[in-house]
């Protein structure tokens, strides 16, 4: 009887031990499995981050090569110091700007916007229009616009990048639609051509300057639209005396003939105090942001003010 009881007790003890051991192993397995899952998740995140960084570097390299190639072609059209620049946008800003819906979940997009700058654009404008005729300058911008409109576009509209099993795409757009071109200098000064009803029209940051609107029923000296064959006039360089900084801009002309009157787009000389000028023009220099534009306006006054 005692032996039987002893055997039963030993069996119970063994069962309890096996239960505890099995329970411990289950906990250990669960912890190991959870740790492996966390490690796999962390590794996946690291791999995805590394792939994103590699794709971003490839996208930047592609954009830089694209920019250099387009810049070379546009400089050959006549403006020798024209610069092609680009800015990266996030998905929301790009979609709001260009009404683009990213409906392909297989790709992650890099969004870029092109823009065009020239430090000597004022000097080029002065040289090309020194006889009061705007046609040469308009023809030059038309040639540049042609090159811009013929810029290469990838198949499907974007450049594809593959890193492992992840897919990326570079999407490029620009502010000016086909047939229009804006070339900017600093401080919001720009020259822009766009197709009007009767031909190309020329604008600056101060408004439309060519062709002039008719006044009192009679047209001014340059009231006609830009004309002439753009095939040759834009092939050379209207560089003129472009060695300067191009800090002055020019608008309007006197009676349609004679030389242009050199003016400042913001009438700096009307302000004796840079703070007064900055307060007046801060929002325009900062694209409606007073704080961002104040310092730029102040610097512009110091650069342009003629003591």
Alpha-carbon Rg, integer: 33 Å
Assembly classification: single chain
Strand content: 15-25%
The global form is elongated
Keywords: Membrane, Transmembrane, Transmembrane helix
Question: What features would you describe in this structure?
Answer:
With 307 residues, the chain is α+β, with helices and mostly antiparallel strands. The chain folds into 2 domains: 45-248, no CATH class; 266-307, no CATH class. It contains 7 helices and 10 strands. The chain has helices at residues 2-76, 91-98, 121-128, 135-149, 230-233, 274-285, 290-304, and strands at residues 83-89, 107-117, 159-163, 166-174, 181-184, 190-196, 199-204, 207-210, 249-250, 262-263. The protein has a 4-stranded mixed beta sheet with strand order 1-2-4-3. Strands 5-6-7-8 form a 4-stranded antiparallel beta sheet, covered by helices on one side. Strands 9-10 form a two-stranded antiparallel ribbon. A hairpin with a 5-residue loop joins strand 5 and strand 6 (190-196). Helix 1 (2-76) runs antiparallel to helix 4 and helix 6 (274-285) packs across helix 7 (290-304). It is elongated, with a radius of gyration of 33 Å. Residues 211-298 are annotated as: Disordered. Residues 266-298 have a biased composition (Acidic residues). The chain crosses the membrane at residues 7-24. Residues 229-246 have a biased composition (Gly residues). Keywords: Membrane, Transmembrane, Transmembrane helix.
């Amino acid at each position: 009887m005692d032996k039987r009881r002893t055997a039963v007790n030993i069996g119970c003890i063994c069962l309890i031990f096996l239960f505890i051991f099995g329970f411990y192993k289950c906990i250990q397995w669960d912890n190991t499995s959870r740790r492996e899952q966390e490690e796999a998740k962390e590794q996946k995140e690291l791999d995805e981050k590394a792939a994103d960084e590699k794709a971003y570097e490839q996208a930047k390299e592609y954009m830089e090569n694209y920019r250099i190639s387009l810049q070379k072609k546009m400089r050959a059209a006549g403006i020798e110091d024209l610069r092609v620049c680009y800015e990266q946008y996030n998905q929301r800003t790009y979609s709001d700007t260009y009404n683009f819906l990213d409906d392909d979940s297989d790709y992650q997009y890099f969004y870029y916007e092109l823009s065009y700058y020239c430090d000597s654009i004022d000097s080029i404008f002065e040289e090309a229009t020194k006889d009061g005729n705007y046609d040469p300058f308009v023809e030059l911008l038309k040639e540049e616009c042609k090159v811009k409109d013929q810029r290469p576009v990838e198949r499907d509209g974007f450049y594809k990048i593959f890193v492992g099993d992840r897919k990326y795409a570079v999407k490029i757009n620009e502010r000016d639609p086909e047939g229009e071109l804006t070339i900017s200098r600093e401080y919001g000064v720009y020259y822009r051509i766009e197709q009007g009803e009767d031909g190309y029209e020329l604008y600056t940051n101060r408004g439309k300057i060519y062709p002039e609107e008719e006044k009192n029923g009679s047209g001014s000296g340059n009231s006609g639209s830009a004309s002439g064959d753009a095939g040759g006039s834009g092939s050379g360089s209207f560089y003129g005396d472009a060695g300067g900084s191009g800090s002055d801009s020019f608008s309007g002309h006197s009676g349609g003939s004679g030389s242009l009157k050199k003016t400042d787009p913001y009438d700096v000389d009307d302000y004796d105090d840079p703070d007064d000028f900055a307060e007046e023009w801060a929002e325009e220099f900062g694209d409606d942001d007073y704080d961002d534009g104040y310092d730029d306006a102040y610097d512009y006054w110091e650069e342009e003010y003629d003591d």
